[in-house]
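Thread title: Can someone regenerate the structure for this chain?

I was given the following input by a collaborator and told the matching structure tokens would be attached. They weren't. Posting the sequence so someone can regenerate them.
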Amino acid sequence: MAYYEIKEYILGIKAPKKSPSLDDYGGHDKETLLKMYHTMVLARRIELEEKTLLRKGISKFFIGCGGKELIDVVAAQALRPDDPFLGYYRNKAFDLYRGVSIKEKILETTGDPRSAATGGMLQQSHSSYPELAILPQASPTGSHAMEAAGLGDAIKNQTPINGDISGLPGGRFKKDAVTLCSIGEGATSSTEFGRAVFYATFNKTANIFAIYNCGWAIATSVKEQFPDGNPTSCYIGMQKYGLLIEDFDGTDIKESIVKFKAMLEHCRAGHGPAIANINVVRLESHSGSDDQSHYMAPQEQQYHIENDPLRKVARAFIDDGLFTADELVELFDNIDNEVKKVSAEVTADIRPKTTSDIMNKIFSYNQETAQTRWNKLIRDKSALRAEKYKDYHKKGYFSTAALPENQPPMMMRKAINYALFDIFLLSDDALIFGEDVADFPREMFDKGAEITEKLKGKGGVFLVTQNLQRAFGTERVFNTPLDEAGILGRAVGHSYQGRVPFPEIQFIDYISPGYQQLKDRIATSYQRSNARVNLPMVIRTSYGGYKQGAGAMWHSEANLGAFINIPGLHLAVPSNAADAAGLMRTAFVCGDPVLFCEAVALYNRRDWEGYNILAQYPPLEHLVPFGKARVYNEQAKDLAVISYGITLPMALKAADLLLENEINARVIDLRTVKPIDWPCLDKAVKDCSRVMIVSEDRFHGGVGPTIAAYISNNLFDYLDAPIRLLTARDCRVAYGLDGDAICLPQTGDLVKAARDLAVY
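Best answer:
Regenerated them for you:
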């Protein structure tokens, strides 16, 4: 029913001869109830304005919230103003009740870069108002439920938060906060929603999952998704573990207030999470490009109109003698005038976006800021570092009490382990979790030292995180279920709360289930929140082949090209112990999400075919800047070899062999492949005129071809020969030494290609 038709409907309601009663409204007074209804009407009127602006060509998109306004305001009223909310694109009334202005909603609609929520990056109704505890929304349905579960876990975690990187001392949200996730019934079919409910139940976190069930996900009926049309039915078995399930009418104000209050009390009391099937109506098609009259039967369309919460709440108020029809209609008139006025002002002064409006909101990283943060940590927390390492040595965590920078050159695995110890010593805000990262399962660790001291412990499948749990406890170092999406969703929650998590994905080959969390949620947060919310984290993962025959499909992937194509994500790929430590420190303080790729083949290698690759652990003050390559043999001008990660030691070995042919090769270690040190490559091409790129990545969409395209586009005139590009074959790596030799570039391949290039 249209906005003005609802007003006429209300005028037709006959006032009963009944004394006012508030008993059935959860104890709310008339002022509160009127505020709730005012917000519902305002949301509907702004929606009408959005449709009007679409018809005028001022807006280019429309998505409606009509029919969901009541449960929005009931939830917003029941929650504390600082309880976190992760919603979707139907929660306009919730936003308004929390304090979002009409102007902001019109700015969202027009895509104006001055929109506080999105800076004009997203369509309207993708809210981000962190100052109101409304966290950034995104379009992929269902994915935010995992964030909500992760945030519930982060709030429950008792580790203190200093705010060293986030600037949120004590945490963004209070320890007794309840996290609300609203979601459409269609999105609950996603795997991530199911896992989110599981995690919240398993961890007994204070999460409410409010399912707005209007019966339709675009043109897919809810009966085509669930046998009984109820998305909560499949979670009945979890009730014995503390999950509360509610089922109620989200168009009935009295029932909605009572049921939501019950869920809130259940969560606040620490009993576990709650999930609700809330029946709502859909008064508009899915979006402006959809027409539900094409697939929704007329009688069902009428059902949605008759159960419009604006109609039903008005009737309840009038029937109960709380307000007169004239009082409610006056709201419509006042809101109508106000929205028209604000809309006219906003649309008369729309500012178009500039390139900088977009490009300046992808990363927050600045090396000077990162160095300042790191220096402060050292200044504040490093005084007892030497004593701590002596204590760790006594406990058997390390073979020596010497500080790592005072030890001989070491392997990369050892350097990463030391770097993690240093970071955990310097900041309480760091924690690490993933598959097998802990020394022991939590229940064994909790049984006491008399058991754990007799065992070596795990600490990761490659022992990179060994003894971290012993040193820092189970709240900061713990195992998770084998679920990459869950690991990354939990990381989002901890980052929102103010920590810098180190989620570990055991092999990059298995990151696929978490790809949506990585690409659509983690990497986009800074841009979609108008640079107001970023998600600092260091996603550690092993990658690559050259495992002396032990690798194969799903254990030898190096497809970093798939990740450099994700705006908002840094990729660090160290080739030695010194850079591994320096890059990890930078990753921790950079303020952005980082995919930290650790080459399995380099963890425990001392040399590469006789070429020494051990390196000195760097002084504690040393950071390796992102986008700053390292150049070996910089005076060489016969050719430039560009590489990174595993193939870098191979390139150095090849450079030694090339000297036998009097070919002097400059070798460039990129160290990060997002960002890339383009000025360094510019200089190398201009100096050498012959370029070879060596990458373990494959050709299609790989890092190597990206660099080659850059050189061709920008430096073609400086080349004296075609660019030579060595990549893995377009296949998965086969098992055994012969598989490595066939599928991946080898030292001999580099030497032969370089010789040919030198005489071209």
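The chain has three domains: 29-161+168-348, 370-612, 630-758.
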